[in-house]
Structures are given as structure tokens and as C-alpha cells.
Amino acid sequence: MTSINANSSHQELLDLADFAARRVRRVMSGDIRGSGTSGMSGKRIGQYSLDIDADNVACEVLRDAGVAIFSEESGFDSIDWPIVDQSIVAIIDPVDGSTNAHRGIPWYATSIAFVDSVGLRAAFVRNLATNETYTAIRDRGAYRDGIRIRAQGMRHPRESIVGVSGSREGSHGWWQYRALGAAALDLCLVATGMLDGWVDFDSHAVWDYAAAMLIIKEARGHVFEMQGQSLIHNDFDGRRTLVAAGNKDLALDLLSMRQGLESR
Fold this sequence. Notes:
The protein is built from 6 helices and 13 strands. It has helices spanning 10-28, 49-64, 98-103, 183-192, 206-218, 248-263, and strands at 68-71, 75-76, 89-96, 109-115, 120-127, 133-137, 142-144, 147-148, 161-165, 176-178, 197-200, 222-225, 242-245. The strands form 2 sheets. It has an 8-stranded mixed β-sheet, with helices on both faces. It has a 5-stranded mixed β-sheet with strand order 10-9-11-13-12, with helices on both faces. The longest helix is centred in the N-terminal third of the chain and has 19 residues, at 10-28.
């Protein structure tokens, strides 16, 4: 495997992510529900054995390439932050939507964001059930299976179909909503325009949204944090509350709604 640093090409970063995701998909073929090997890990609340298996193989690939890692399952490699010099950090959720995977619901993904001293540089999200893949490169656009995508959401909530994480009573003014259970993939739907927006009624860690955030932005969509906090960070316990939309007016409406609920 080619050693990766800040001088590596964009394609080398995406190829590395692809290799890691293929390793995850392979190990999960023997780990999903019904195989007799799945279940809770017993090491952390909400963590499945499949999460650990996926993390082991993905991080092996990344470490062999010389990339520092910030992973949901194994934490943060020792490195200066903010990132300096030639360093590349991979923010990874080996299996986003692991409960879906455990239940056999085909909506779970490997999500990898590569960060350099400037910020988010490259993003990779692959639906492990279908192999559909979303990618983005900073200032070079976003793609689904190699075809360029553009976020084109409705402008007004009353016309919009909005994805959510967590739950609150009521529709809050939008036409319909969806709660799909894998934030990275949910947000990628905003990048394609299949969802007009997305609202977090809970909070998420950076590995849940980092890659999808770059994909949305490179698809000319919009992402906001409810309290205006920095979205890219290295705090393992830090959580952020996001709204996203293809249309800026809708994103601001969703942000205002979400902030209003918090203040009640």
C-alpha cells in the first residue's frame, strides 16, 4: 500500500478509503445477523461485535498507509491538532448504522473523511449493503458512483421531505419526514436532493458526519451546527447537533426551528 501524506493525490486517498471499505464489507459478510457471531461487544454501550471487527480491518489498512486515525471504536492516534506539516488524519466510522446492519436493514456504511492542515480534504461514504459510494474532494465537487451530484432541495419547509435523527412530536411544518438510522448516508441523500433537508434531534460525533458534510458542501448544499460550534474537532466525547439542506433558506429555517425547540 502506498504511503499517504499531504502530498498524496486525491485519487490515492479515495483508493485507500475504497480498500478499507472493501475489507470491512468482507469481514461483515460473516458478522451480520444470522451468522451466529453478531451481538453486543460487551465493551461499550451500543457497540456491536461487528463494529470492533470492522474497525480492526479498516484501521489496519489506514495505519499501513501511514495515516493517523480518529475512530469511533478505537479512538484517536497521538498527533498534533490542529493538523500541521504533512500529516493526514482519517476520521472514520467503520460501520455507521450498525444497528441497521445487525437487524439486516440495508442502510449502513463505512464513512471516512481525510483531514489535512487546511481542513476536510476528501470524503468517502459507502453503503455496505448496496455498494453505492459517495465521494468528494475539496473544491472539486461531489459524486455518487462517479457521477457528479448537486443538492437541490425545496425552499420552504411545507414543501420539504426532511430526514431526522432522534424524534420529537409533530412534523414542525414540513410535508413529510424520514428517520433512516445512519447519519452519514442520511446526509448524503441531502447532497443528491433525494432529501430536501435533515435535522438532528439528538447529537452526533464527528465521525458520524465529517465525510458527509464535505459531500454536501461540495454538492453546494449547506450544513449548520445548532450552537455555532466547530464541526471538525478531535474531542472523542464531543457531540454536535446539525441541520443540513440543499437550499440555504430551508437550512436556515430548519436551524431556527431546531434552536427554538432547544430553548423551550
